[in-house]
Amino acid sequence: MRKIVPALLIAASLVAAGTSASAQTILGQWDGNGITAGTYSGTSAGTNSSGTALAQRYSSGSFFSLPAPFSSVVTQGTPADPGTDISGTIYNRSFTVNPPQTTDANESQGAVFNVSTAGMNPGEAVQLSWSMTVGFRSSRYWQLLASTDGTNFSPVPVGVGSSVTQAVNGFGNTSSPYTPISGTATATVSSTGLVDIQTINQNYLAAASTSTAPIAPFDLGFIDDITFTLPTGQGFENNPNFAFAIVGAFDPNYVGTDGAEGYISSFAGTNSLDGTNGYVRSTFSGGSMKMDLVTVSAVPEPGSVALLGLAALGGLGFMGRRRLLKATR
Hints:
The chain has helices spanning 4-20, 259-262, 302-328, and strands at 25-30, 54-59, 62-64, 74-76, 84-86, 89-91, 93-97, 109-114, 124-134, 141-147, 154-155, 160-161, 163-172, 179-189, 194-198, 208-209, 223-229, 243-248, 289-300. By secondary structure, it is α+β, with helices and mostly antiparallel strands. A hairpin with a 2-residue loop joins strand 2 (54-59) and strand 3.
């Protein structure tokens, strides 16, 4: 028996490693580190390895020219972003996505990211990942949409979402001197692509600048490594017209069509009728949303990774049984 246990322990560790760490190929990435404020397309927005990545505004099925809904307000990026060296100066920035107005319909306002997924291998799935922070009065819920033609969008089909709990730092107040704040923020992505993000109280995200100069290292409460893996066989792989969107969404418990009541705030969870902590779309009232390191990757299918780990478990278990039989003969 002593010879079986180590083999099973090794197999178990392989299963754990296989499900948590897997190879990925970045197909497109937006880091917001461009030198021009308010410009987020092409290489000024970040890097990508396949074609030209494009970020643009989505509004009720229509597209608008840049930078809307990306604000010209430039802010510090997530500490997870090492920054970009531009002429000897390191820039680490995020980009601001304007949340919906209270007059906007559910899932009608947000940002679109277009990138080719050509060159993917069999057995790979498309994974979306990003860093994100919201003001304490910004929308708590955001919905992921996907498109196979770059024009028509619908809620993502059932996939695999992440759940992240992270200790974060931020700054309260709307003007200098800012008050340091800290706490725990969470971001959970459901299997249907509904993002539930809960930030820390008084996270105003107001430590900002419209200058093109490098930005002071303000912590803005970013949650990193938020992911959603799309199912395969839906036309997302090897598609030059692939695109996805993230749009503001109503509280899933709300039944109605009024944005004044449907959108709720990230921290308190109240709608716009709460004039102190409820939902508001205002950069300097705690109603902003920022993204960084928005990435589209090719990763092994979640199911294939788990099967690989189980195969390793079965194989090593068989080896252990053989050793036991030899030892008892």
